[in-house]
Amino acid sequence: MTGMNIPELIFAFVLWLVGLFVLYAVVRFAVRHAIEDADRRRAAERRQRGA
Predict the structure, then answer these.
(1) Cα 37 from chain centre
(2) Each residue of 4-49: pLDDT tens digit?
(3) Cα separation of 47 and 51, whole Å?
(4) What is the CB-side half-sphere exposure of residue 38 using CA atoms within 13 A?
(5) pTM of the model
(6) Which pLDDT score is estimated for 17?
(7) How confident is the model at residue 50 (pLDDT cuts 50, 70, 90)?
(8) DSSP string, 1-51
(9) 12 near 4, Cβ under 8 Å?
(10) How many CA atoms lie within 13 A of 49 on its CB side?
(11) How far is CA 22 from CA 17, 26, 29, 33, 37, in A?
């Protein structure tokens, strides 16, 4: 093998999965807030046009 024993490999894999999940959560949070912001802007534009 590469000199790593099984517990080290498992720890590295779990750490990698945690990092991947954190990245997924950050991207999901950013996209959700961007969509909400776009909806707010669209609603404000509709109100201005209607007035």
Answers:
(1) 16
(2) 899 999 999 999 999 999 999 999 999 999 999 999 999 999 999 9
(3) 6
(4) 6
(5) 0.72
(6) 98
(7) confident
(8) --S--HHHHHHHHHHHHHHHHHHHHHHHHHHHHHHHHHHHHHHHHHHHHH-
(9) yes
(10) 6
(11) 9, 6, 10, 17, 22
